[in-house]
Design goal:
- The complex is a heterotrimer of chains A (178), B (650) and C (144).
- With 178 residues, chain A is α/β, with parallel strands linked by helices.
- Chain A contains five helices and seven strands; from the N terminus they run H-E-E-E-H-E-H-E-H-E-E-H.
- Chain A has one domain: Glutaredoxin (3-Layer(aba) Sandwich), CATH 3.40.30.
- In chain A, strand 4, helix 3 and strand 5 form a beta-alpha-beta unit.
- In chain B, strands 2, 3, 4, 5, 6 and 7 form a six-stranded antiparallel beta sheet that branches.
- The longest helix of chain B is centred in the middle third of the chain and has 31 residues.
- Chain C is mostly helical and 144 residues long.
- The radius of gyration of chain C is 25 Å and the shape is elongated.
- Chain C folds into two domains: 89 residues, Orthogonal Bundle (Helicase, Ruva Protein, domain 3), CATH 1.10.8.640; 34 residues.
- The chains are: A alpha/beta (178), B alpha+beta (650), C mainly alpha (144).
- Chains in contact: A-B, A-C, B-C.
């Protein structure tokens, strides 16, 4: 062993790094949220069903809920909608909607047409609340526990695998929608 | 029919490249000279087949054959003929084919250019090149076949990405790839030398003109890419430290080190194992760049569509080629010994410092580019690395390098005799400092701390590089092309340092919103908005905003930046308007309609930015001149160990 | 996953072609300078390797508005960076902070320089010693 082996050893290490890179590459751009295990950001926003009313996030404390960020302009939101309806039907956890930078009338029409999976939908017209949640691309889904801590975040359309593989195991066995 | 013919030609090309590699490597190893002799026939066949495949694909593009998936995805019947040809390298599959074609072209050039080398040695060189061709052909056929058919054929194509519909992009990839691929020649020479055990400095002399030529192409290619980004992307920037840019810049940095260490190896038989390693590293970085750009492991503003399966294939190929050559290196390099001595002030020392600093700069760019990957694989979380990291860390090794150049250029080999040059060094430094501060405070009247320092260094490089050629001209001494080329390339570097300094320090950039008839003043230039008018092209429509620009009452120009909407991809591109005025590059990019007749517009005044690209051209011209020096041609004939040296010159 | 990758590619091609124009001009030139440098240091989370200053997407414009508001409210650059990274993680910072997990990146150039200097010094000393017994050859033929 001498210094002439250094280049090939360095290259071997690099190969490992690149191999890990390939394995992770489909997930590139999906960033671990700094909110995990931190208190969920607060918001008080108009209610989509009745914009005169306020949805206050403090009201959710004490129960498990999923916060789903969506918008009618978002292509993948349409793709995940059927899954959201299934989540609603399962009754395992409450679904709170955050309608992100959208038009109220479009959003109401969307829910009327496709079915409403949400217990309540808060309207974030300016996108300010979404920034507090670190949202960068709809749809995004956050799981929050009764203590108000963010437990899990999913970026992209919610699918069966994420629901049964990531979200259900984190819920207590008998937890109902509160 | 044509796509099948092209596909078939590509398969034949693969087989012939395999034969080329086999004959070239196994022939000399087993001492079978007839095998070694067959390598050129295999190469000729391979090159013809690849050229046929490229010709078929071009014919498919020109003939609008939208039954070919690649054509359907990257062309359109409304696309002008010129871009239908250049669409060949508009996406991953075709650009890979271009890579292989250029590798074939370099191989043929090496075949003709090294006919006076020992036949076994040149067979090995061509064999290694055949192995590289084989790998890339296999990659193309296995994962990225451009000849796949669509069933049913598309009625029309999805069009070439509009930002690629530009003359700059038409020529940028071929020149850049010529540079990348050219380093394969130095790599092949190094591998051949190691396989043969011919590790004296002769291989270095044979390699020098090839390496310098490849370097010249890469320099031009990078500059063209930067120029294209400047005027076509509408950002007005010219270097973003984006992974794709870094992928071309790392081989350039290590290639620059290689050009210099080859000089020391050729002249003094020094740094032999180091030069071998650099030859391997330069081409390895070219291939690694291909991997980074095409595998999707890094995010970039202009990468190809990602596909992990391609990544795995290239990685396997990298392990084979780079791992193989480095193993060869670990086996052969310990045999290399050199007893040549030199003192601290000798030219050899300065070449050593040059190499150390360039490699550190390349390693820094490498660390920054791969940091997101490295951090992720070490479980350290995600990290972003951008210009705020690259700019200061790059300067850390580049400024000392630039300053050392101005001293080292006067040093002699072996014993530096710098004392003789003491007065020259001090005088040029003094003159440069006066000029540098003059530019900073006289012309621009302000500047950061580093501005006068960097400007001084830039001018110092230019002055120092002029000393030797002027001395020889005055004394009517001979001025060999190698020396003249070196001086010109160094002057180009000085111009680059100076221009980058003024651009970084004195650029004025502002986005303003104007309504009809309103004016704004940016960086001394006043522009009046005279309204928008529709524009139309063969495959797009758009608007052009008219701006009348003046400076202190003196009319400068009427500039019309455009926004274009392309019909097929519905993509909007920004067509900047650029005007050169008294050393300043004035750039206008039209923004959006803000309503009520107001438009936003980006105004940039970049002093001396054109010199950045001119500097690259000067460097490339210098390198081309040096590569054409008679010395390299003469050296081959007089090579005593060469068995083929007795052959008459062709 | 392949679908997502190709979607991204389409998306980024769109993003690359158009440039965000930001006609913000804060009254205080010092604030404006800080605004420009901060928006160039923050990454657009939706895009591929662009700063929020360069990105035309909506979210980038929202984040620029945040930077503007907070600057006007008298926040320091570091407070604004912290505010951003508390929401989007360290990933949003194009200038990685000097922290235990990024130390290697910042120290690498310095360590390499020191290492390079040490190696150069050793080589020059060894070569200098070899010169001692070497007759002085005329260096005319050693010209470059």
């Amino acid at each position: 062993m001498n210094r002439f082996y250094l280049p090939i050893l360095t290259f071997a290490l690099l190969t490992v790094v690149l191999a890990v890179g390939i394995r992770h590459s489909p997930d590139k751009g999906i960033i671990v949220s700094p909110l995990l295990n931190k208190p969920a950001p607060q918001f008080a926003l108009p209610n989509l069903a009745d914009p005169a009313q306020v949805v206050d996030s403090r009201a959710f404390k004490g129960r498990w809920y999923l916060l789903n960020v969506w918008g009618t302009w978002c292509v993948e939101c349409r793709a995940e909608h059927a899954m959201l309806l299934k989540v609603r039907a399962s009754g395992r956890v409450a679904l709170i909607g955050l309608d992100w930078k959208d038009n109220d009338a479009d959003a109401q029409a969307w829910l009327a047409q496709l079915g409403n999976p949400y217990e309540i939908v808060a309207v974030d017209r300016t996108g300010r609340a979404a920034i507090d949640w670190g949202v960068y691309g709809a749809p995004e889904t956050f799981l929050v526990n009764p203590a108000g801590l963010v437990i899990y975040k999913h970026v992209g359309a919610l699918d069966e695998a994420t629901w049964s593989g990531e979200i259900l195991p984190r819920l207590p066995a008998a937890a109902g929608p509160g | 029919m044509l796509p099948e013919l092209g596909h078939f030609a590509l398969i034949l090309g693969l087989l012939l490249a395999g034969l080329q590699a086999f004959f070239g490597i196994a022939g000399p190893a087993r001492g079978r000279d007839r095998w070694s002799a067959a390598v050129t026939a295999a190469l000729a066949g391979q090159a013809v087949m690849v050229a046929t495949a490229v010709g078929c694909l071009i014919a498919c593009f020109v003939g609008n054959d939208f039954s070919v998936q690649y054509v359907a995805e990257n062309s359109n019947s409304a696309l002008p003929l010129f871009y239908r040809v250049t669409a060949l390298w508009g996406a991953h599959e075709g650009s890979l084919l271009l890579w292989i074609l250029l590798l074939g072209a370099w191989s043929v050039a090496v075949w003709f250019g090294s006919r006076r080398l020992p036949p076994r040695f040149s067979a090995r060189v061509l064999g290694v090149l055949g192995l590289v061709s084989f790998g890339f052909l296999l990659f193309t056929l296995a994962t990225s076949n451009p000849f796949l058919r669509l069933d049913p054929p598309a009625p029309d194509g999805r069009d070439l990405n509009p930002i690629l519909q530009d003359p700059g992009l038409a020529i940028h990839p071929p020149i850049l790839y010529t540079g990348y691929v050219g380093f394969a020649v130095a790599f092949a020479f190094a591998c051949a030398a190691m396989l043969e055990g011919r590790l004296d400095q002769t291989w270095a002399r044979w390699t020098r003109p090839w390496t310098t030529s490849a370097w010249a192409f890469l320099t031009c290619g990078i500059a063209l890419g930067s120029f294209w980004a400047y005027y076509e992307l509408g950002w007005g920037g010219f270097w973003f430290w984006d992974p794709v840019e870094n992928a071309s810049f790392m081989p350039w940095l290590v290639g620059t080190a290689l050009v210099h260490s080859l000089a020391a190896t050729d002249k003094r038989g020094l740094f032999k194992s180091w030069t071998l390693l650099l030859a391997i590293l330069t081409f390895s970085l070219s291939m690694l760049g291909t991997f980074l750009v095409r595998s999707g492991v890094l995010v970039s503003v202009h990468s190809f569509a990602a596909d992990p399966s391609r990544g795995i294939f290239i990685l396997a190929f990298l392990v084979l080629m780079i791992g193989g050559s480095l193993a060869l290196y670990a086996w052969r390099a310990p045999l290399l010994k050199s007893s040549a001595g030199f003192e601290l002030g000798a030219r050899e020392s300065f070449l050593l410092f040059n190499n150390v600093l360039l490699v550190i700069a390349a390693a820094t760019v490498f660390a920054g580019t791969l940091a997101p990957l490295i951090s992720d694989s070490l479980g350290l979380g995600t990290v972003s690395v951008g210009p705020p990291y690259f700019n200061p860390t790059f300067m850390l090794s580049m400024l000392p390098l630039a300053a050392l150049l101005c001293v080292g250029i006067h040093a002699n080999w072996k014993r530096g005799r710098l004392a003789d040059a003491q007065r020259t060094i001090l005088f040029t430094l003094l003159a440069a400092a006066v000029l540098g501060c003059g530019v900073t405070f006289g012309v621009y009247t302000h500047g950061k701390v580093l501005t006068p320092v960097a400007a001084t260094i830039g001018i110092w490089i230019i002055l120092s590089s002029l000393v030797e050629p002027l001395y020889r001209l005055r004394r009517h001494l001979s001025l060999p092309r190698a020396l003249l080329g070196m001086s010109i390339a160094h002057i180009g570097l000085g111009v680059a340092v100076l221009a980058l300094t003024t651009v970084q320090s004195f650029t004025v950039e502002r986005d303003v919103s104007l309504s009809l008839g309103e004016s704004a003043t940016v960086g001394g230039y006043t522009l009046r908005f005279d309204g928008v008018k529709p524009v139309e092209g063969p495959n797009f429509e758009g608007v052009g905003g008219t701006f009348t620009v003046s400076r202190g009452g003196r009319p400068v120009a009427v500039m019309v930046p455009q926004k274009r909407q392309f019909w097929v991809q519905h993509q909007v591109t920004s067509e900047t308007a650029i005007r050169l005025d008294r050393g300043n590059n004035l750039l206008l990019a039209l923004g959006e309609d803000l309503g009520a007749g107001r438009w936003s517009v980006r105004v940039q005044v970049r002093p001396l930015v054109s010199l950045v690209w001119l500097a690259a051209l000067i460097m490339a011209i210098g390198a081309a001149l040096a590569a054409s020096d008679r010395r390299y041609r003469a050296a081959r004939v007089s090579e005593p160990a060469a068995g083929a040296a007795t052959e008459p010159a062709a | 996953m392949r679908f997502r990758a190709s979607l991204l590619a389409v998306f980024l091609a769109g993003a690359a072609a158009v440039q965000a124009l930001d006609t913000t001009q804060l009254a205080d030139p010092a604030l404006q300078a800080r605004y420009v440098s901060l928006t160039h240091e923050l990454r657009c989370m939706q895009c591929q390797n662009e700063s929020i200053a360069d990105s035309p997407v909506d979210l980038a414009a929202d984040l620029r508005a945040q930077v503007r508001e907070q600057l006007l409210a008298g926040k320091s650059d570091e407070e604004i960076r912290n505010w951003m990274s508390a929401r989007y993680g360290e990933f949003i910072l194009f200038r990685p902070r000097f922290a235990p997990r990024t130390a290697w990146l910042w120290l690498a150039p310095l360590v390499l320089l020191v290492l390079g200097a040490a190696v150069s010094w050793r080589i020059v000393r060894q070569r200098g010693a070899l010169l001692a017994g070497d007759p002085d050859t005329p260096d005319e033929d050693l010209r470059p």
